[in-house]
């Protein structure tokens, strides 16, 4: 009778999956703000299909309240596992406790949260953004080795309050503070988009006539800034040194064309690892608390060589 009741209610077959063994994942995506995000969504969708995992996908349009609503909806739908890329670091404890109380495991992918309660999620799969900022800073320090005059830097930050914005800012600052000639003369969010990146860079150019370097937390803001720099009659990559993060196709093309000087890769291809972790978590297996994605950096010459093989 009990077995019949369980199956009648779509109960679990013991390994956490539905009776037909098919896992259902609720996935809350940040939005569709950048080339990186599009590539990440494609990777997740393709990997879910290949893994035979049913994906319930929600696009939050970069709003935390939409992600919270989506997670609540996944809990009500009794999905087997929830995965999401938190648009900002804070404000998740309440909704993640609801998922925990419902016995639904949560996987953080791409971005982390700042809650001290690590029992709210099983693992965090994503890049080390502090390391990405450090790599950007290290390239700049080497590029300006031996020069003594002040180097004026403007910074286009990602979404305010997001882990990549906070960490890429901090990692970069930590490295360049070693040499007092490096000065960040302006820093503002470009919201990870081309349009906002162009708008803010235009304002920077109007306020400062002596910009030497742009550090943009993603390619898309860098590409928008390039439009503003050219509109101001300056040569991107020559008059203003440009460093970005991501290494999506359009960014790599600008790097190969000499309009960007250095790109730190941030891989969006998290789908296969995410589905592998989801299967293990649903089966009740132990998974590492932190899975760091492997990634590299690109100079202009390296971009020319790498472009033909780029997947995104
Ligand atoms: C980084 C990711 C960031 C990308 C941006 O993992 O969260 O968000 O760097 C994207 O391009 O918008």
TrEMBL record:
- Spell out the residue ranges making up region: Disordered: 1-20
Provide the alphabetized UniProt keywords.
Signal
> Does the keyword field hold Nucleotide-binding?
no
A Pfam family this chain is assigned to: Peripla_BP_4
Q: Which residues form the Periplasmic binding protein domain?
A: 27-285
Supply the Gene3D superfamilies for this chain.
Answer: 3.40.50.2300
- Main subcellular location: other
Give a yes or no for keyword Signal in this entry: yes
In terms of CDD domains, this protein maps to:
PBP1_galactofuranose_YtfQ-like
Q: Which InterPro entries match?
A: Peripla_BP_I, SBP_2_dom
The family annotation for this protein states: Belongs to the bacterial solute-binding protein 2 family.
Do you know which PANTHER family this protein is assigned to?
D-ALLOSE-BINDING PERIPLASMIC PROTEIN-RELATED (PTHR46847), GALACTOFURANOSE-BINDING PROTEIN YTFQ (PTHR46847:SF3)
Q: Which protein are we looking at?
A: ABC transporter substrate-binding protein
What organism does the UniProt record list as the source? Plantactinospora sonchi
């Amino acid at each position: 009778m009990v077995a019949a009741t369980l199956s009648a209610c779509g109960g679990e077959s013991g390994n956490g999956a539905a009776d037909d063994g098919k896992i259902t994942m609720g996935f809350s995506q940040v939005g569709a703000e950048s080339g990186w995000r599009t590539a990440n969504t494609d990777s997740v969708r393709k990997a879910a299909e290949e893994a035979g995992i049913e994906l319930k996908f929600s696009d939050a349009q970069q709003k935390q309240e939409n992600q919270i609503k989506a997670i609540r909806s996944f809990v009500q739908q009794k999905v087997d596992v929830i995965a999401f890329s938190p648009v900002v670091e804070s404000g998740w404890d309440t909704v993640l406790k609801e998922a925990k109380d419902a016995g639904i495991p949560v996987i953080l992918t791409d971005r982390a949260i700042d809650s001290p309660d690590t029992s709210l999620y099983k693992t965090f799969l994503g890049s080390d953004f502090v390391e990405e900022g450090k790599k950007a800073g290290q390239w700049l320090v080497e590029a300006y080795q031996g020069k003594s005059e002040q180097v004026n830097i403007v910074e286009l930050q990602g979404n305010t309050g997001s882990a990549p914005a906070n960490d890429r800012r901090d990692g970069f600052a930590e490295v360049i503070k070693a040499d007092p000639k490096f000065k960040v003369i302006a820093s503002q969010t470009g919201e990870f988009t081309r349009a906002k990146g162009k708008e803010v860079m235009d304002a920077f150019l109007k306020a400062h006539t002596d910009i030497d370097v742009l550090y943009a937390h993603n390619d898309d803001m860098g590409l928008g800034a390039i439009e503003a720099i050219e509109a101001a009659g300056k040569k991107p990559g020559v008059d203003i040194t440009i460093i970005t993060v991501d290494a999506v196709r359009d960014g790599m093309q600008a790097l190969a064309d000499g309009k960007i000087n250095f790109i730190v890769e941030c891989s969006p291809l998290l789908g296969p690892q995410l589905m592998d972790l989801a299967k293990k978590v649903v089966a009740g297996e132990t998974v590492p608390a932190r899975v760091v994605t492997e990634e590299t950096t690109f100079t202009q010459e390296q971009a020319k060589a790498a472009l033909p093989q780029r997947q995104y």
